[in-house]
Amino acid sequence: MDCFMREAIDGTPAWIAPTGVSEMKNVHFRARRKVEREALREGVLRIAAESFYALYVNGQFVVNGPARGTYTCNFLDTHDISCFLHDGENHIAVEVFCNNYPTFISSPAEPALFVQAGDITTDESWQVQIAQDWRGDVPKYTLQIGSMEWRDMGKEPLGWATFADDSQWSDANVISADRPLYSKRLYMRDVCDLRTSHIQPTAVPVVAETSPTLQCQPDDLAEFITTEEFTPPSSGIDVQAIVTGRPSRIDPRENDKGVAVILDFGQAIIGGLELNLEAPSGTILDVCYEEFIENGKLIPSRFHYKFADRYILRDGSQALNNVLHWRGGRYVQLIFRNFTSPITLNKICFADRRYPIDSPAEFQCSDDNFNRLWQKCLATMSACATDTFLDCPWREMAFWVNDFLVQQEFWQQLVGKTDLVKRSLSLALSQPVTDGLTPGVCPFDGNEKLVLFPTNLFLAIVLGDYNRYTGDGEFVDSVLCEVEKIFNISQQYSDDDLLLAPPEKYWNFTDWSYWLCKDHALVEPGEHFTVDGKKICIVNWFNCLAAKLLAELYTSRDEKKAEEYSQLAKDIASAIVEKFWDDELDCFRELLDKSAPASKVTHSLAILCDYLPANLIKPCTNALYRDDCLTPELYMMHFVFKALAHADDHQTIIETIEKYWQPIVESDCPTIWEANVHEHAKHAFWNAGSLCHAFALAPVSVFQQEILGIKSLENGFKTFSVNPSPCGLMFAKGKIPTPNGFIGIEWVKRDNELGVTLTVPAGTVAKCNGVEYGEGLHKFEMCI
Description:
Elements: E1 16-17, E2 27-36, E3 44-50, E4 52-57, E5 60-65, E6 73-80, E7 89-98, E8 112-117, E9 120-121, E10 127-130, E11 140-142, E12 146-147, E13 150-152, E14 170-171, E15 173-174, E16 185-188, E17 195-199, E18 203-210, H1 218-227, H2 239-244, E19 248-250, E20 258-279, E21 284-290, E22 301-302, E23 305-306, E24 308-312, E25 316-321, E26 327-337, E27 343-354, E28 362-365, H3 368-383, E29 399-400, H4 401-414, H5 419-429, E30 441-442, H6 455-470, H7 473-490, H8 513-516, H9 537-554, H10 559-580, E31 581-582, E32 587-588, H11 600-609, H12 614-623, H13 637-646, H14 650-660, H15 662-666, H16 684-687, H17 698-707, E33 710-712, E34 719-722, E35 731-738, E36 741-750, E37 753-760, E38 765-768, E39 771-773, E40 776-783
Parallel strand pairs: 6-16, 13-24, 34-38
Antiparallel strand pairs: 1-15, 2-7, 2-10, 3-6, 3-8, 4-5, 4-7, 8-9, 10-14, 11-12, 17-27, 18-20, 19-27, 20-25, 20-26, 20-27, 21-24, 21-26, 22-23, 28-35, 29-30, 31-32, 33-34, 35-36, 36-37, 37-40, 38-39
Helix pairs in contact: 4-5, 4-6, 4-17, 6-7, 6-9, 7-9, 9-10, 9-11, 11-12, 11-13, 13-17
């Protein structure tokens, strides 16, 4: 699949690395070259790395990257370095890190670097060295993210980036063109550069004393920190200095106790810690990241995660940062051990790296709880957007393609930019597994169970949503055939009745409620219900919806295909009704053998597909209110809200938001939780629940499409409807992004009327109560 815009370079890139690193794990290496200013010409440098790099010019840090790729492709960044150059000799230096095993954020072939600038490119003339200050035999920080950091700062060759060190270097090894690395396509970066913001701590909620010098193996560090005791400090530190960015001193403690400091950054953060300090040689610094303080400390060992790093400090002034690794959360815990003279913290901040959102959508109404919820939704989306969409900034940083089903729609509503959606969909399409299906996570780590079968149906739904919001026919044309191909491959698992039953080897996942719900006795305590290998109703309704949207996508492109997919959708719907409808239960069964409760999502999809026989519409709608039908977790609530809106039941939508999202609004958490229906907050998912999860933003659609009442009627909002629903509010106003600019709307309730002020962007038409409004500002009354 080649749906990226263009290949990066003509010819074959010259990838380099130190000799012998191709089989090593968790490799850090350095590369450098002297070059005359004239050879760099206009001062534009292009760089790629397998898998992460930090670029320095004349000893100054420039940038880190690149955009993530998959097992089939890498990406090349372009940087203007002219402001870092001077006449005569210049020094180009790069640090590279590669897990050299697949994770959810990189899928490397082998450690490697490519640089091209003016007349120079990576070749044997570059000097390289394996970075001995980084320990390689370390555990996974998380399976999804990669390795923990364990670094001995005393082994770093000072001045290496400007050739001022006396350490050992060797000539670079140019990687042979027959290596697997060269089978990966190299593309130009296809998403805007991330924005780095330096965030100061807003508070220091905990200062404590703890264990003295700790000698342990990397595997044991997170568990030890989790279980060690924190006690009140014998003397304090200047926490106000830390918050305001002034130097703060930590004095040694009696009995060689360590000192723990927890920093609260007041928001979800993603990127890397930056710490400038002075310390005696041999000081140990353990760093943990979390979203939640539990019993006065951070808990770095949760489930199979180990959220802890260790640094052994050298004598004097030094700087620590995570330029080659990603970290996230809200709180950072620093534990200093093994110091016999004072430590001075000169600078503490977090270098937050994320997609730049400069002009987001707006929403405000007479209910301040809804206003706060909107802001938390926006903060959540922002923290979960880098060069792909992420599930969360703390636990995984994974681009889950099944999350993308709803996340991309929330992104269009909140931000309205297309590059991240196009890039994410293209990445998902770039990594087919053996039988042509798309894995549920991108990049894919090779675990066949992570081929989430329904994901392959979701891609057509995503593309249909994208087309509706953007009207970007050029991109749709570039990927439609591949999306259609994957949909058709998934149909090989349908029976003669057109019902899908995927192989048991794949995860047949749609909604967390079957895993988390405690209200039905499907499995023994401590186990989870599974539908892998089974024919389930919800997946087949997603199949129907995917076929329907493929028909819509082909309507203006291929009339014959449009008719074929439209008929297929109707036939699938008929098969579902015949096999899954239960007259006795008066609803759809989830499984043919009645061993699982019905789902509200299943009935929502049946309503939204709009192929139900007339006599089933009312009982399907009634199922949305039944206690014996499973309520989805926050992720799939999006479809329930759409079905309730289809039934004009805004009151139940509002009550549901208040039930499940209001506790989040009232909490101290600045973002939206992963779960709050069957399990809650941090206690969900084996006490490793995320408190910042962008698939849980279903209220965003309600605020825009129902309360403000703006819905696209023609692709790209060329025409849109205006039909606000007050939902008990006295006023509401907002801005909705479209390809032609923002739609602005404000309404005020007056008895049985709404006074509406509407701004229509150029090139669009608004429709309200049979009246059309063109470009410009309009004021009118409408009955409710």
